[in-house]
Amino acid sequence: MLVFNLHGSCDPRKVGFYSNGLAFEPVMLTGGNAVLFNTVACWGARYINYKREESMLLTAMYEYGIMLYSGACVPALGKCGNFNHDDTWSIQPAAYSETFMARFSEYECLGTMSAGEAFLKAKCDYYNSSRKVEENELILATVLMFNLYGNPLLRTKPDLERLLDIQPEDGTKAVRIPFRKTKREVVMDMRKDNNRKSSIIGDIRIAVDLNLQAIHDSITDNLYNVLGVEPRELKTVEKFSTKDIHGIPQEGYLYNYERQEGTITSRIRAKVDETDRLINAIQTKFC
Q1: Rg of the chain in Å (alpha carbons)
Q2: How far apart are CA 173 and CA 261, in angstroms?
Q3: d(C-alpha 82, C-alpha 79), whole Å
Q4: Spatial separation of the C-alpha atoms in residues 141 and 77, rounded to whole Å
Q5: In terms of DSSP bridges, do strands 68-72 and 78-79 run parallel, antiparallel, or are they unpaired?
């Protein structure tokens, strides 16, 4: 089995996966014995409107003997990789695409079920277990964006030693958690006029939201100190409203940044409450 936690691209000329530079390309599959291929790379399973040689998925399956391939055709979500600890917040344990793919890879290797069953169980277990630590809409997006290619009836040889360590379920049913929708509205858009701090529409919306007007500077300073994001990298600000796991209303702002690091584009979304406290941040990286 091959599992890749690297970055991908939608550019037809960039077929491989990237870290700071090119880290893996299809020709590296030559002479390998792997038949299972899992990746959380953005566009890691792209194939629509791509030629065979422009798609890692198509090349791996048609030319290098990969029998089962799992990945996404769109940008995948992951936790922000440059967190620093402070006294106001902590890193949440779940990590969207990485959490799901790790779970699926484990189920796939155990050999107790077919690949299709393992894929479905991984999605269901990830969805149910992450509801208390991740946002519902992003969890659902993660579940929907990944696909399994190949024969779903295939299965690996059971790992008997690993199976001995698995404890039987106690029969306890999971408590149903209602889906929590999030309302979002753009209140600042830096993209409309690069020569101004915000657009006219943005100024009007900020004027209406006096709370954001009062704490905007402290938010950007705090996010720079904690996440290292520059104010010039800010693209949009959204106001959100939702409910927490206990049904208590929550309101705050989503600060959406974009930065370029060599060939890698990084999009970071920082979630802050109405008092400018950082709640969490996620990022997507692609070429």
Answers
A1: 21
A2: 46
A3: 9
A4: 9
A5: unpaired
State the CB neighbour count (10 A cutoff) for residue 31. Answer: 6
The neighbour count for residue 237, using CB atoms within 10 Å, is 26
Residue with token string 């990084």: 266
Q: Report mean pLDDT in 10-residue bins for the chain, 287 residues.
A: 91 91 93 92 95 96 96 82 42 70 90 92 88 80 94 85 59 58 86 55 58 85 85 91 83 91 82 86 77
Strands (DSSP E) found in the chain: 2-4, 17-18, 22-24, 36-39, 68-72, 78-79, 146-150, 183-189, 234-243, 249-261, 264-273, 278-286
CA pair distance 273, 185, nearest whole angstrom: 15
Which tokens belong to 116?
């299709």
* Contacts (Cβ under 8 Å, ≥6 apart) of 183: 240, 241, 242
What count of residues does the chain have? 287
Residue corresponding to tokens 């889906």: 179
Structure tokens given for 235: 């693209």
Q: Which amino acid makes up residue 213? A: Q
User: 185 in helix, strand or coil?
Assistant: strand
